[in-house]
Amino acid sequence: MNQPPDQTVPLLQFDGVHAYYGPVEALKNVSLHIHPGEIVSLIGANGAGKTTLLSSVFGAPRVSSGKILHRGDDISATPTNLISRRSIALVPEGRQIYQDMSVEENMIMGTTPIGMDHFDEDRTAMFGLFPRLKERRNQLAGTMSGGEQQMLAIARAMMARPELILFDEPSLGLAPLVVKRVFEVLGEIAALGKTIFLVEQNANHALKLSQRAYVMVNGRIHLSGESASLLDN
After folding, report:
1. pLDDT (tens digit, 0 to 9) for every residue of the chain, 233 residues total?
2. Sheet strands (E) in 75-201
3. 152 and 218 together in one domain
4. 3 domain residue, yes or no
């Protein structure tokens, strides 16, 4: 019988994290946590350090001090390829799909951390979530619209069967109707039992989706609390 997640141990935790890009300190004593099953948002202006925080989970950049903990284990110095095998996936800013590969080939690349054992089953599930991808399964990914590419980036991440998904600016550069659909999809993914850490400039959408949120300013956490309370602030 499956045991419920231990809510006393955060799934992901940043504990006093500092990180640099060359001489520039991009993260300054950042502490936050995400429990299993939560949707947590990190909002802030462009250049606040949000993307750096997500990237630091995978070691780019490495933290100079402090710790990043996954289920209580310090992963601050863990090689990137081993972090992806800990059931953590990233949907990066700007999508970063493989432009010269087909939709289906991109999805195959998403299975890299876990292998192809569940590919057929998971491909069917993703085509159910994103019917447009099924229509375009053999099309080169770089020829699709921005919204379709964003859906593919999400599907590619889901093919690794992650328990925790990091989303970096999923609404960036998309039309309002597509943004609405993207956030609907995030809610549907959360309903599947996934934990979501969402970095987003669109504070209104992010706060309406998440339960808790942090506000980052100049590499520091400036505010935190229940999303509904921050939405009213």
Report:
1. 334 445 579 999 999 999 998 899 999 999 999 999 999 999 999 889 999 999 999 999 999 999 999 999 999 999 998 998 999 999 998 889 999 999 999 999 999 999 999 999 999 999 999 999 999 999 999 999 999 999 999 999 999 999 999 999 999 989 999 999 999 999 999 999 999 999 998 999 999 999 999 999 999 999 999 999 998 88
2. 88-91, 164-168, 195-200
3. no
4. no
Cβ contact 31:16 at 8 Å: yes
> β-strands 24-34, 195-200: how paired?
unpaired
Domain end position, chosen among 159, 178, 213: 159
CB 49 within 8 A of CB 219: yes
| Same domain (yes/no): 174, 216 | yes
58 in a structural domain: yes
Yes or no: say if 96 and 169 are a contact pair by the CB < 8 Å rule.
no
Q: Which two tokens stand for residue 231?
A: 């939405």
Q: 95-125 b/e with 16+ CB inside 10 Å = b?
A: bebbeeebbbebbbebbebbeeeebeebbee
Residues facing 215 on adjacent strands = 43, 223
Residue 179 lies in a domain: yes
**Statement to judge: residues 109 and 155 lie in one domain:** yes
Q: By 3-state DSSP, what share of the chain in percent is helix, strand and coil, each rounded to 5?
A: 35, 30, 35
Residue 224 is encoded by which pair of tokens? 């935190």
Q: How far is CA 34 from CA 63, 68, 104, in A?
A: 19, 12, 32
